[in-house]
Here is the input.
Amino acid sequence: MRLPKFEHVQPSSREEASRLLQEHGSRARLVSGGTDLYPRMKYGLTRPDVLISLKGLPATPPTVDPNGDLHVDALMTLADLARSQTVLEKTPLLSEAALSVASNQIRHMGTLGGNLCQENRCPYYNQTHTFQFVEPCFKRNGDQCYLIPKGKKCWAVFSSDTAPALISLGASATILAPKERRQLPLENLYTGDPLKPLTISDGEVLTEIIIPCPLSLRGTAFMKFTLRGGMEYAALSVAVVLDMENDGVLCRAARITVGSVGAGPIRAGKGENAMAGQRLSKNLFQEVAQLVVSETHPFPHHGYSAAYLRACLEVETRRAFSLAAEQITRNPGDPG
Ligand SMILES: Cc1cc2nc3c(=O)[nH]c(=O)nc-3n(C[C@H](O)[C@H](O)[C@H](O)COP(=O)(O)OP(=O)(O)OC[C@H]3O[C@@H](n4cnc5c(N)ncnc54)[C@H](O)[C@@H]3O)c2cc1C
Here is the structure.
């Protein structure tokens, strides 16, 4: 399949990219690695006349600020992110999530910003070009759903692997607009609406992710469940961060985020509350995993039924808790 014709514009800075985006309005799209956008253009799902490319702009290597927080450039490729020693030391959870994306080739093209801003997925929308020849579904401005034939809404899932990990780490995003720079908690980047998954608007560029790295005793785990275990999007993913009291016995706070089973990443607030203040144990992991399943309501998608995803989510959440707890007992003096 061929890409449609478009004008390729190479700005010399992020500020210029943002200005150009606003100038061209809905005719323009931002492109980084193109691994998500180009297939959609080939399938006729988006037809920008102008592509504003971030690809030629240099990405700053990850840095740690005086508060100990980690700053990661959104233009970094996932391959560079996964092999950054600074990221591995400060937030191994993020390295793990970045390394789980697609294949080595795609990680060398795909960027963190593109990963966080990728389009929602559905087999009847952006997995093949065939559906451009039939009556449009909700996601293509139509009024029907092919996945759930009598469905009244769109069921396209958001499948970024890095988003759940970063949300569990309490990351915030820096957004650059032509006249301002703003920061928002990463979870607020997502609307939960499959038809408009992101809260950023046309002239805005995601430039940086900031991850707080407290010096508490911490265990983390990222589980990505796929059928084949190869180059594959997640059937579901779960990212867990357990911050412990100084005694290493009681859990001070937990953050649990589930990915790929909804229109955006889903924080499991009830599960987090149930974990806080508790002594870690297998029974607790089982109880909280059940709570996580009951509050996240997995969407059926890509051939996985909701019942199957619920069963898998319980198992993967339990495993994530056990791995995070093992990390705590292995490195009791390590802030993780
Ligand atoms: C075969 C295959 C397998 C894949 N498997 C996975 C997987 O397992 N897990 C996973 O998470 N993803 C997967 N992907 C999706 C994709 O490759 C990655 O998400 C990748 O990180 C996207 O980054 P990119 O730079 O190529 O994005 P692009 O395609 O350049 O952009 C994606 C979207 O984000 C917008 N955008 C890009 N950069 C910015 C920015 N800085 N600010 C604001 N908006 C921006 C673009 O306008 C576009 O709408 C897969 C893709 C393919 C083709």
Summary: Residues 1-54 form a domain with the Uridine Diphospho-n-acetylenolpyruvylglucosamine Reductase; domain 2 fold (CATH 3.30.43.10).
